[in-house]
Amino acid sequence: MNHLRARDRRQGLRRVGIGTFQGAALVLILAIAMPIRAVDERAVKSRVSPAYPEIVKRMKIGGAVKLEATVDAQGKVTDIKTVRGNHMLSVAAEDAVRQWKFVPGSGSSSVTVEVNFAPAQ
């Protein structure tokens, strides 16, 4: 009988240990993610509207293009890549966001922006 109690106690301790480990891992992930989110919120100082490609406009294609831009300390976009959106619109969106100016910051940061294209009705 004591053998069964000892086994149950070990299993209970194992469950507590696994739960504690999972909780610590979650806290670590959140701690790492929080500063990144704060960096992403750099204000846009000046925007350039994208040139809506004529062929895409005629095809009445629209939608949002999500981009990830790297911004240097002076607020200039140094690198950009499309995260999500129509490829026919992404080139125009990237060209426009490359010309945007952001508020200067303490260093380089990654900013996620979304450019919307609305087809003519």
Q: What does this protein structure show overall?
A:
With 121 residues, the protein is of the alpha+beta class. It has 2 domains: 1-39; 42-117, 2-Layer Sandwich (TolA/TonB C-terminal domain), CATH 3.30.2420. 45% of the residues lie in helices and 26% in strands. A 3-stranded antiparallel sheet has the order 3-2-5, covered by helices on one side. The protein has a two-stranded antiparallel sheet with strand order 1-4. The chain starts with a helix and ends with a strand. The model is unreliable at 26-39 (pLDDT under 50).
Which short descriptors sum up this protein?
121 residues, TolA/TonB C-terminal domain, 2 domains, two-stranded antiparallel ribbon, 26% strand, elongated
